[in-house]
Amino acid sequence: MTTVVSDRTQELLTRTVVWDNHACMPLRPEDETFLPQLARHKAAGVTVVFLNIYFDMYPPETAFTMLASFHGWIERHADDYVIAQTVADIETAKKDHKLAIAFDIEGGKAVEAHPGLVEMFYRLGVRWMLIAYNRNNRLGGGCQDQDTGLTDYGCQIIDEMERVGMVLCCSHTGYRTAREAMEYSRNPVIFSHSNPRALKDHDRNIPDDLMRACARGRGVVNLNGLGIFLGNNDNSTETLLRHIDYTVELIGVEHVGLGLDYVFDRAEMDEYIRNRSDMFPPEKGYGAGTNMIEPERFPLIAEAILKNGYSETEVQGILGHNNLRVAREVWK
User: Fold this and answer.
1) Residues with Cβ < 8 Å from 88, sequence gap 6 or more?
2) CA–CA separation, 231 and 251 (whole Å)
3) How many beta carbons lie within 10 A of that of residue 72, not counting itself?
4) Quick check: 45 and 13 in contact, CB under 8 A?
5) Which of 68-72, 243-247, 273-277, 316-320 has the lowest mean pLDDT?
6) How far is the C-alpha of 14 from the C-alpha of 173, rounded, in Å?
7) Is 268 exposed, middle or buried (0-12, 13-18, 19+ CB in 10 A)?
8) Among 160, 166, 79, which Cα is nearest to 124's?
9) Residue 1 confidence (pLDDT) above 70
10) What whole-number percentage of the chain has pLDDT above 90?
């Protein structure tokens, strides 16, 4: 893909921590064939990318086997990649022209057995976790379920996340649970990869009041690049820019970021959708062949935002510095 941009945009990218808040590698610990494609993020000028190690469709032990696999591969390729345990690790990676990698967990089933698992995951590089993935669990409600709200155990997990420094995420979470979680949390809460429902009516997108609540709590709404959530399977840069503009106008540019949710193994994603109608109800528009915004698009996204009249500082915020601010406040 051609990603030629202006000298101004290229110079801006060289002094910006570019942050992709969510990407999905196959959850097959024995299969490393897709991991070399992380070079696509590196070549696009991304500084740090967050890789999913688990979501609520899997047995909880999957999270640990995926972490073992990812850690091993990254350590064997230390000339190009580094695990980001601290903000300083990200800043050093930028200077050393490496791609920093951190991890995320999509759904609280991974910690249902014991709150102490939160700290174990944090020590292994997990820096944010969402409450529920589409369906209800022991912590709270999912966005494709009858949401019964944040549970007492969910509050206990949030307390533990705050203690260790893990960021709370409300993407994929039911609206009631998300509201209650943001009211309960003392730390900034993020939406790691969610778009405004006002522009595309889908349960996975979020209404204005949740975005405002996120901003009031000093959090960041990270927009994703999946066509089903941007429009009618529309993954154009122009449509993403409309979602950025809407969110900026609603909650302020300092609360907007990007988590493209790029899925490297499309066949695996299509298989999930076909086989798990409980998680991905077909009547909600889920289907095979979802268009995505690829990581190579980051320079073009930066150029489009600049051309739309944003200042360089505002563009840096959207590209990564807003999420960096949350990390500085929450990570330990």
Assistant:
1) none
2) 21
3) 12
4) yes
5) 273-277
6) 35
7) middle
8) 166
9) no
10) 97
Average pLDDT over residues 141-168: 98
Could you tell me the two tokens for 205?
């997108």
CA dist 309 and 19 (Å) reads: 21
Decide: pTM greater than 0.85.
yes
Direct distance between the N- and C-terminal alpha carbons of the chain, in angstroms, rounded to an integer: 38
Q: How far apart are CA 252 and CA 258, in angstroms?
A: 14
Supply the DSSP string of 188-211, one letter for each residue: -EEBSS--BTTTS--TTSB-HHHH
> Alpha-carbon dihedral of residues 314, 227, 52, 26, nearest 10 degrees?
-140
Q: Say which amino acid occupies 232.
A: N
Task: Show the tokens assigned to 170.
Answer: 């409300």
d(C-alpha 62, C-alpha 53), whole Å: 8
Q: What are the tens digits of pLDDT across the range 293-327? A: 999 999 999 999 999 999 999 999 999 999 999 99
CA angle 37, 242, 45 (to 5 degrees): 30
Token readout for 132 is 């529920």
CB 196 within 8 A of CB 208: yes
Alpha helix positions (H), 31-140: 38-43, 61-76, 87-96, 117-123
| Residue 237: exposure state from Cβ atoms within 10 A (0-12, 13-18, ≥19) | middle
Which residues contact residue 129 at a Cβ distance below 8 angstroms, ignoring those fewer than 6 apart? Answer: 104, 105, 106, 107, 108, 110, 111, 118, 121, 161, 166, 167, 168, 169
